[in-house]
């Protein structure tokens, strides 16, 4: 939901008993809602700051590679960069890595690749609030992670690796 003022709150409840799902100030996302379910939304304003109000609301289908087990295969080479994009509005949180602060909401998308040579992988074009982590594909053991652009070193040819991209979501508390 966007175009919500900083003195407005949104609260979302299920329609079976009115159990609270989430609430936030200003613009925000609500994750893991179920198709064909009915939800109740409450808009509120801080007294003394009440004005006419409007907002935008849109639904987004979950990303197919939003979970570790549903990772997307990337084919990387030594000849060219592979450009990949993600609609971050479609991701949710799965697990925390060593690059993340526990307790923060860290939204992630998952990929896998086979290393074409013995050597390194460089990842660029990553924003400052994004981290990337590489795991071995045998047991999901974290090999390395970094924030922003960086390298993964000493990877082995023909070895499969799993990679998670994580976007930090600021908490909206008052």
Secondary-structure blueprint of this entry?
Blueprint: E1 8-14, E2 20-25, E3 39-45, E4 72-74, E5 105-114, E6 119-123, E7 130-136, E8 142-147, E9 150-155, E10 160-169
Q: What is shown here, in short?
A:
This protein has 174 residues and is mostly beta strands. It has no helices and 10 strands.
List the keywords.
174 residues, Jelly Rolls, three-stranded antiparallel sheet, disordered C terminus
Would you write up a description of this structure?
The protein is an all-beta fold. The protein folds into two domains: 1-59, no CATH class; 68-169, Jelly Rolls, CATH 2.60.120. 0% of the residues lie in helices and 39% in strands. It contains no helices and ten strands. The strands form three sheets. A five-stranded mixed β-sheet has the order 4-5-10-7-8, with no helix packed on it. A hairpin with a 5-residue loop joins β7 (130-136) and β8. The radius of gyration is 20 Å and the shape is elongated. The two termini are 18 Å apart.
